[in-house]
Amino acid sequence: MDSAGPILISVIIPVHNSAKYLKECLDSILTQTFPLSQVEVSVWDDCSTDNSLQMVEEFRTSLENRGGRLVIGGSNGDQQPKGCGFAKNKAIEQSSGEFLCFLDSDDVIAPRRLEAQLAEARKKKENGCDAATHGPQHVLVGSRFHRIPEASTARYTQWANTLPQHLLDVQVFTSHGPTIIMPTWFCARETYSRIPGGFSEQGKGTPEDLIFFYKHLDLGGSIRRVDEDLLMYRYHPNATTFSISEETIWELRLRRLEERLLICPGGWQGFTIWNAGKQGKRFYRGLCQKARSKQSIVICLW
Q1: How many domains does the chain have?
Q2: Phi and psi for 175 in degrees, rounded to 5?
Q3: Based on the domain organization, do 57 and 199 belong to the same domain?
Q4: Which helix (H) or strand (E) holds 14?
Q5: How many beta carbons lie within 10 A of that of residue 84, not counting itself?
Q6: Where is the Glycosyltransferase 2-like domain (predicted)?
């Protein structure tokens, strides 16, 4: 392996007690159609108490035999884990690639993922232009995915995979998270770096992906999706997603709606809540007083 060669893509993998699925995840990197000589795998272990680190070390030979590089960091199991956001930030900090590919340690990537998402990110980076700054457009690239087990979150999977491209940055208030799921994210390092602090490090129960997603949009960032199935997105009881409450997501969405549309300078002068049932009442009660003063409620009886 030529250790002096340029690294184009860093695959970012936060790890915490991931041994059950980790080998399948890592092995999927070896199947990539993109040259692994330009790929670095950056793993940050967040205080695992199983043999996750040992499995990552065992992966080193297979990766290096194909020209790839492996960077490992982290803390031992004697300390308290600091959360997924912290682990992602540390994995990025120790990496060197121009582009970042995010991968959860329980998921599996399709062979064309790096090649397809790099092509989309480069297209936007080289040809896109922010009208306000006349600079390069910052883009988060996602992809279609499938779930394992197949029947899990069927309605959400269909919605996320079929949402039209022009609505990816519009339907941010109707979804329970980013309109492209975090495990499919791919972006230029400079796109990540312009978010102060990177991912939230508040720890377990914090939707660090949604917080980052909103900040990206607030800075004028764009969203794209490669319309290929590039990820096997695993559904299991120990997934990080289950540590985040629906109420937390609701509050984030509501506060953003207020700040961006209802109480900001130049925001809406008024709005109407149609079909004010249970969700409408919950929405109204959750608003701050200033936002409440702008609305009217319409109850449809037909």
Answers
A1: 2
A2: -95, 160
A3: yes
A4: strand 9-15
A5: 26
A6: 10-135
So what's the pLDDT on residue 270? Answer: 62
Residues 143 and 283 in one domain: no
> Positive or negative, the Cα torsion across 81, 86, 89, 94?
negative
Whole-angstrom Cα distance, residue 61 to residue 103? 20
Together in a domain, 156 and 292: no
The CATH number covering residue 148 comes to: 3.90.550.10
Look at residue 1 and tell me if it is in a domain. Answer: no
Q: Is 240 within a domain?
A: yes
What is the C-alpha to C-alpha distance for residues 239 and 230, in angstroms, rounded to an integer? 19
What is the DSSP secondary-structure string of 220-266?
T-EEEEEEEEEEEEE--TT-GGGGS-HHHHHHHHHHHHIIIIISSTT
Q: Which of 185, 175, 252, 177 is nearest to 221 (CA)?
A: 185
Domain with 272 in it: 257-298
263 and 200 housed in the same domain: no
274 and 162 in a common domain? no
pLDDT-based confidence at residue 238 (cuts at 50, 70, 90): low
Question: Looking at the predicted structure, is the pLDDT value of residue 145 above 80?
Answer: yes
3-state helix, strand, coil in the chain (%, to 5): 40, 20, 40
**Widest CA span in the chain:** 71
In this structure, of 7-11, 102-106, 207-211, the range with the lowest mean pLDDT score is 207-211
The reported pLDDT for the residue numbered 151 is 77
How many residues are listed for the chain in this entry? 302
Q: What is the pTM of this model?
A: 0.83
Clarify whether residues 101 and 238 are in a common domain: yes
